[in-house]
Every structure is written in C-alpha cells, then in structure tokens.
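Exercise 7. Given the encoded structure of a 176-residue chain, write a plausible sequence.
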C-alpha cells in the first residue's frame, strides 16, 4: 500500500499504521493505557498552551515520517513546537518534537526499538516512554540520527526534557 492509498482509506479510530507499505492494525488499547495517555495529554497540553510553546495531539493521528518509503505512524501523543506548527495540516507531515508512547505489557504495533530507530532516523527530538507497570517515564533523546541519551525518571522524580526545559512534573503528579 502506498502512503497515498493509506491516507485515502476511510477515517477510523482503530489504531493502525503504515510500515513500508504494510498496514498494521491493533486492538483498541486498555482503559489503563488510555487513562495514562489522557493524564499526560492534560499535563502537557496545559503546559504547552500556557507558554504558547506549540501544540499537543492524541492518537489516532497520522504522522507521516516518510511519504516515499510509506511510513506513517500513530504515537499515543505528540508535541510539535510553535516554530514547527506548519507541519500540522490535514496530517502531521514530519517528525514531532516529542513522541510519547505508553508501553503496554504486550506490544501492540511493532517493537519499541523499531519505533525508536524511526524516531532517531526521521528527526524526532525526544520520545517519552511511559512504563505503566512500574510508573516510570524514560526520556529518550535523539541527535544526529541516533539515540543520544536515555534517562529513567521514577514515579516521584521530576521529568526533565530538553524540548520542554521548564516542564516540572513527576509521573506521580500527572497520574494523581
């Protein structure tokens, strides 16, 4: 399937992605997964909006990382900085500044390492991996097409981000 064909399919709330021409679908996420996504959306959206820092969107939203290689993904949540809001039109045409993924005990679409590789390759600045079982957040920073650092923040530690340097919340604050 081409990117054009994928984007012409009927709108759906079913999680799906186009990975190098193959459409991958998954069952709907669990209520706990969605609760975490919603809590992070509220925390990030209020922070981003308060400082006119950009925009925050929830899945399902198509992020076209590579139109020619037919790679369209749907992270659980994305942040696009104010300077780059032009990539957000009918879809997101390029790498968000932050991609957030809530990790389920069983991977739903592809592997985490596969996704991190794409994020590094296509210019995502950070990926926040929310470990729902252990209530931890791992911030993965990318630079020059590779993983530059991985920092794990435990439940009560404040999450530190180079994309949002003044974000000052812990997972405990966010899911309280």
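Solution.
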């Amino acid at each position: 399937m081409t990117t054009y064909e994928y984007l012409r399919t009927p709108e759906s709330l079913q999680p799906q992605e186009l990975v190098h021409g193959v459409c991958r679908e998954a069952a709907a996420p669990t209520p706990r997964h969605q609760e975490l996504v919603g809590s992070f959306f509220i925390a990030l959206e209020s922070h981003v909006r308060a400082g006119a820092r950009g925009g925050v969107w929830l899945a399902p939203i198509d992020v076209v990382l590579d139109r020619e290689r037919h790679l369209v993904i749907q992270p659980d949540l994305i942040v696009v900085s104010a300077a780059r809001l032009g990539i957000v039109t009918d879809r997101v045409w390029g790498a968000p500044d932050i991609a957030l993924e809530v990790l389920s005990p069983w991977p739903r679409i592809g592997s985490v390492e596969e996704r991190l590789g794409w994020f590094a390759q296509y210019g995502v600045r950070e990926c926040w991996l929310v470990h729902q079982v252990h209530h931890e957040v791992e911030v993965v920073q990318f630079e020059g097409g590779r993983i530059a650092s991985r920092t794990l923040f435990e439940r009560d530690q404040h999450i530190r981000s180079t994309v949002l340097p003044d974000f000052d919340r812990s997972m405990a604050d966010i899911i309280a």
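Remark. The helical segments are 3-7, 31-50, 112-122, 171-174. Students should compare their own answers with the one above.
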